[in-house]
Design brief:
Layout: E1 2-8, E2 12-19, E3 24-32, E4 39-44, E5 47-53, H1 59-70, E6 86-91, E7 102-103, H2 106-114, H3 123-136, E8 142-146, H4 156-159, H5 165-171, H6 180-193, E9 202-208, E10 212-218, E11 221-225, H7 247-255, H8 260-269, H9 272-277, H10 283-291, H11 295-319, E12 324-328, H12 329-334, H13 336-345, H14 355-358, E13 365-366, E14 375-378, H15 383-396
Parallel strand pairs: 1-6, 6-8, 9-12, 12-14
Antiparallel strand pairs: 1-2, 2-3, 3-4, 4-5, 7-8, 9-10, 10-11, 13-14
Bound molecules: adenosine-5'-diphosphate.
Residues 9-12, 209-211, 238, 282-284, 329-331, 334-335, 361 line the site of adenosine-5'-diphosphate.
C-alpha cells in the first residue's frame, strides 16, 4: 500500500509518499514559509528534483503543488493519484473527541472543525489538507493521527490544572499536549539507540520548531509536557507567547479595551519571537538580527533560550533522574548555539556535550561528551512514518 502522509504545520507542509511494502519513501519534501513568502522542495530517490522559492500564500496552494509534483510526467513517482491507497493526516488537536487515530469521515471532519477554537493555528490548515486530498482522491480512505494521543498517559497531577475540579470536568479543560507523534517517535528511537529497553529510561524530548514543546518521558510513556489545553502554553514560540500570567488576559480586556478574541489572536499570532522582536517569527531571521545588534531580537532569542532551559530543568526535577535529552524539529535539529547553551545550563546535573559533534545540522547524531552523566542526541523527527503506520493499520482493518 502506498500512503501519502500530509503533515501541515503553522507555516509549513511536509509530505511523504511511503510504500509500506518496505517503508520506502518514494518522494518527500517540504513547503515552508507558507504565508510569509514561500519555498518548496521535492525529493525522490534521485535526489532533490527541485528546491526553489515559489509563492505559497496558503496551505491549499502548497498541497496542490505537491500533488502536481508527485504525478508530474517527468519527475513524478506515480503515474496517477489512483496508486495512492490511503492518506494519513497529522492533526494537531484531538481534544475531547479523539483519543486515538481514526478513519476520516464527515463526522470526524466536523469534529476537527469543532476543535479549531482549541488549535487556531493548526487545525484549520489540517482541514485544508484533508479537503484538498478528498477532492483529488474522493475514493481513497484517509486517516487522522492526532498529536494529542501520546500524552494521554500523563498522571492527573500533570494532566489537570489547579482550577475547580468540576470546571475541568464540565468543559473538558485539561493539558492535552501536542507534537505527540514526534515526541513518541524520537523517544522510541532514542531508546533504540540506547540499547532498547524504553521502560527503564527517562528522557527529556525537546521538539523545537515554529511551535515548540518539551516532554518528560518516563519509562516510554509521557509523564508531562509543556503544551496544554491548546498549543499556546509552554515555551516561547514563533508567534505564540507560551506561558504567561493568565491575569494578563483580563487586564488587557479591562484596561486595554481589547476583546477576548483580540487577546487570543495577539497571544497566538502576534506574540513569541515575532511579537518581541517586531521582525519575524522565523528563528533564523531573529539570529541574523541579533548578530547585527538588534536589541529586541536579542531579547527574543534570550527568551526562547530561557524557556527551553526552564522546562528542561523542571522536567529533570520531576523525573528525578534523566538518562537522555533529545533535540528535534526545525530549531532543535539545526540551531547549534541553542543546543549548546541549553546543555551548558544543565551542566549542574552532569550534562556535557561534545562541541565538535554538536556542530551539525539535521542529522541523527549523539552529541554526548566523554564523562557526561546524561546522553544527548539530535534525532530528526519522523512523524510521517508513525502516521503512515497508523494509517496502514486502520485502513487494512476496514
Ligand atoms: P513547524 O512547527 O512549522 O513544523 P519546523 O519544525 O519546520 O516548524 O521549524 C521551523 C523553525 O526552525 C523556524 O523557526 C526556523 O527558523 C528554524 N530553523 C530552521 N533551520 C534553522 C537553522 N539553521 N538555525 C536556526 N533555526 C532554524
Amino acid at each position: 500500500m502506498i500512503i501519502l502522509v500530509v503533515n501541515t504545520g503553522s507555516s509549513s507542509l511536509k509530505y511523504q509518499l511511503v510504500d509500506m511494502k518496505d517503508e520506502k519513501v518514494l518522494a518527500k519534501g517540504l513547503c515552508e514559509r507558507i504565508g510569509i513568502d514561500g519555498h518548496m522542495n521535492y525529493k525522490t530517490d534521485e535526489g532533490t528534483v527541485f528546491d526553489k522559492d515559489t509563492a505559497l500564500p496558503d496551505h491549499g496552494v502548497a498541497l496542490q503543488l505537491v500533488i502536481e509534483a508527485l504525478t508530474d510526467k517527468e519527475h513524478g513517482v506515480i503515474s496517477s493519484m489512483d496508486e495512492i491507497g490511503a492518506v494519513g493526516h497529522r492533526i494537531v488537536h484531538g481534544g475531547y473527541l479523539f483519543n486515538e487515530s481514526v478513519l476520516i469521515t464527515d463526522e470526524v471532519v466536523a469534529g476537527i472543525e469543532e476543535l479549531c477554537t482549541l488549535a487556531p493555528l493548526h487545525n484549520p490548515p489540517a482541514l485544508v489538507g484533508i479537503r484538498a486530498c478528498q477532492e483529488v482522491l474522493p475514493n481513497t480512505p484517509s486517516v487522522g493521527v492526532f498529536d494529542t494521543s501520546f500524552h494521554t498517559s500523563m498522571p492527573d497531577e500533570c494532566k489537570y490544572y489547579a482550577i475547580p475540579w468540576e470546571v475541568s470536568e464540565k468543559y473538558h479543560i485539561q493539558r492535552y499536549g501536542f507534537h505527540g507523534t514526534s515526541h513518541r517517535f524520537v523517544s522510541e528511537r532514542c531508546a533504540e539507540l540506547m540499547g532498547g529497553d524504553a521502560s527503564k529510561i527517562n528522557i527529556i524530548t525537546c521538539h523545537l520548531g515554529n511551535g515548540s514543546s518539551l516532554s518528560a518521558v518516563k519509562g516510554g510513556k509521557c509523564y508531562d509536557t509543556s503544551m496544554g489545553l491548546t498549543p499556546l502554553e509552554g515555551l516561547v514560540m514563533g508567534t505564540r507567547s507560551g506561558s504567561i500570567d493568565p491575569a494578563i488576559v483580563g487586564f488587557l480586556c479591562e484596561q486595554g479595551g481589547m476583546t477576548v478574541e483580540d487577546v487570543n489572536a495577539m497571544l497566538n499570532k502576534k506574540s513569541g519571537l515575532l511579537g518581541v522582536s517586531g521582525i519575524s517569527a522565523d528563528c533564523r531571521d531573529i539570529c541574523e538580527a541579533d548578530a547585527k545588534g538588534d536589541h529586541r531580537a536579542h531579547v527574543a532569542r534570550e527568551m526562547l533560550l530561557k524557556s527551553v532551559k526552564r522546562y528542561a530543568g523542571a522536567y529533570a526535577a520531576e523525573l528525578g533522574s534523566v538518562d537522555a535529552i533529545v533535540f528535534t524539529a526545525g530549531i532543535g535539529e539545526n540551531d547549534i548555539e541553542l543546543r549548546e547553551k541549553v546543555c551548558d545550563s544543565l551542566g549542574f546535573m552532569g550534562v556535557k556535550i561534545d562541541k565538535a559533534k554538536n556542530d551539525c545540522r539535521g542529522k541523527e547524531v549523539e552529541i554526548t561528551a566523554d564523562g557526561s552523566a546524561v546522553r544527548v542526541f539530535i534525532i530528526p523527527t519522523n512523524e510521517e512514518l508513525m502516521i503512515a503506520k497508523d494509517t496502514k493499520a486502520i485502513v487494512e482493518a476496514l
